[in-house]
Amino acid sequence: MSRKDFGIWEGEKTIDLPQQADAGLYFIGRIHTPWKERKDCPKNARESEAVCTVEVDTRWREALKDVETCTHVVLLYWMDRSPRNLVLQVPGHHGIQRGTFALRSPARATRFRALRPPARSFPT
User: Fold this and answer.
1) Are 14 and 8 spatial neighbours (Cβ–Cβ below 8 Å)?
2) Is the Cβ–Cβ distance between 55 and 29 less than 8 Å?
3) Which sign, positive or negative, has the C-alpha torsion 38, 102, 111, 3?
4) Which residue from 19, 54, 72, 90 has the fewest beta carbons nearer than 10 Å?
């Protein structure tokens, strides 16, 4: 899949990003989903029965010790093909231009998700 698959659509507006990032981050794993194109991503996980998996890199597995005792786990994820410079979008289900942060768009720069941990321990 190329970056253009998640590129700019009609009615969307971009901005120039700062030349230097404000911070860095370490990826601790990968999320695997069945969706290959932006248009196929549901705006809400409740709209899909698809099975998605979170794969935690082996070096971080010990950090999952006792996570099953938590009521929720907050997962911050970065969709690798999403444009980072969109400020206005036109969602297909709504048809009216809205601000990116007012949407559940797969083209939003940062995503948050609260998950209930599984009832059993993760392998270490």
Assistant:
1) yes
2) yes
3) positive
4) 19
Q: What is the DSSP letter of 93?
A: T
Cβ neighbours for 40, distance < 8 A, ≥ 6 positions apart? none
The pLDDT score that the predictor gives to residue 3 is 47
Domains located in the chain, CATH noted: 3-14+27-115 (2.40.30.70)
Q: How far is the CA of 60 from the CAs of 7, 57, 117, in angstroms? A: 32, 6, 16
| Six token digits for residue 66 | 């006792």
Classify burial at 83, counting beta carbons within 10 Å of its beta carbon; exposed 0-12, middle 13-18, buried 19 or more.
buried
Local confidence band at 2 (pLDDT 50, 70, 90 cut-offs): very low
Q: Work out whether strand 86-89 and strand 13-14 pair parallel, antiparallel, or are unpaired.
A: antiparallel
Per-residue pLDDT of 36-45, as tens digits, reads 887 788 877 7
The pTM is what? 0.61
Beta-bridge partners for 56: 29
- Whole-angstrom CA distances from 74 to 61, 77, 82, 112 are 16, 10, 20, 7
